């Protein structure tokens, strides 16, 4: 919404990517992580949106991830746990 999608593209990709396709994929990705599941597109719709050039809807508020340092309660020492805002998934990241 702030027009900063280009910041998500790795600079090392240089001119090797199609910018309009990358921005379209980012927009579709944001549609897929909207806060309310009923607002998210079906997989069929995702495939159609990625394969077409038509206008896409503006994404609504996403579900945010917040990182919490849970060393005290973490049963896996040396790993950090990420919790989603909806608390439907947990990802363990190994510290290096």
TrEMBL record:
Protein name (database record): S-locus receptor kinase C-terminal domain-containing protein
Organism: Vitis vinifera
Domain of life: Eukaryota
Keywords from the UniProt entry: ATP-binding, Kinase, Nucleotide-binding, Serine/threonine-protein kinase, Transferase
Stored PANTHER family: PROTEIN KINASE DOMAIN-CONTAINING PROTEIN, RECEPTOR-LIKE SERINE/THREONINE-PROTEIN KINASE SD1-8
């Amino acid at each position: 919404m702030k027009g900063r999608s280009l910041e998500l593209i790795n600079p090392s990709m240089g001119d090797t990517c199609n910018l309009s396709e990358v921005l379209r994929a980012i927009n579709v990705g944001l549609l897929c992580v909207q806060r309310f599941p009923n607002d998210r597109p079906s997989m069929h719709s995702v495939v159609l949106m990625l394969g077409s050039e038509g206008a896409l809807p503006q994404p609504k508020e996403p579900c945010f991830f917040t990182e919490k340092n849970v060393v005290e309660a973490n049963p896996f020492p040396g790993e950090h746990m990420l919790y989603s805002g909806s608390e439907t998934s947990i990802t363990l990241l190994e510290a290096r």
